[in-house]
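Q: What would this chain look like folded?
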Amino acid sequence: MGTSLASKTIGGGDQAFKWYLHTSGGNIGGATRICNGNGDDTGLLVSGSEIGIHNGSATTIFNGLATTSRGIDFPDADGTVLLDTTTGRTVAKLGSDSSSTSTTFSEIGSFSFTPSASKTYSFKIILRVQSAAGTTAAKMRFLGPTVDFVTYRVTAPRASASGAGFWEGTFDALDEEINPLNFYDSNGGQGIVEISGIVKLVSGAPTSQFRLSLASEVLNSEVKVLEGSAMIFEEL
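A: My prediction, written as structure tokens:
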């Protein structure tokens, strides 16, 4: 009371005010930082389209460019919302094509999901698949750690010269051969293969990741799982 900020030096030694706002000399459209102290410490980040928390070289940002007014409601009873990377939805995306001309299975590199013990997940694997010949299928195996149970359904394009169709199979164990038999197309097969299901992990640390392995149905006939294919896991 009776003391103002007007005579105080930003970052100075006068501790009459232990907390005050500092806009770092920028305007609101230029990612201004509002901090305590000299403006270089942890603080609130405000710009024309975002708000966040700055901590050294890292910043947590909440973006907002709505074209009309928006409201966000958190339906929790105790006023706390937990955002944690160990829960929720996880997507593993294939960054480059993976191919095989062998009838022996080999794992698709960097295309995996790390589960947690005793957790139940729903999952969907969406694959862009291509084969060098319409009569050659891409064979697969869905691999993973020891589970309490797993059930999944596989659908894949399969047809003949008379028309298009789909192959479907249901599995209740990991490491089973998935063979749709062909990907008919006059110029070689290409299409979407989907694997969807539910799995529950046993207690104890998982011994491996969930992943896929690939092989060709016909020796020396190339099959590919293409870039952009995705594995989507969601904890239930």
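The chain has two domains: 9-77, 89-235.
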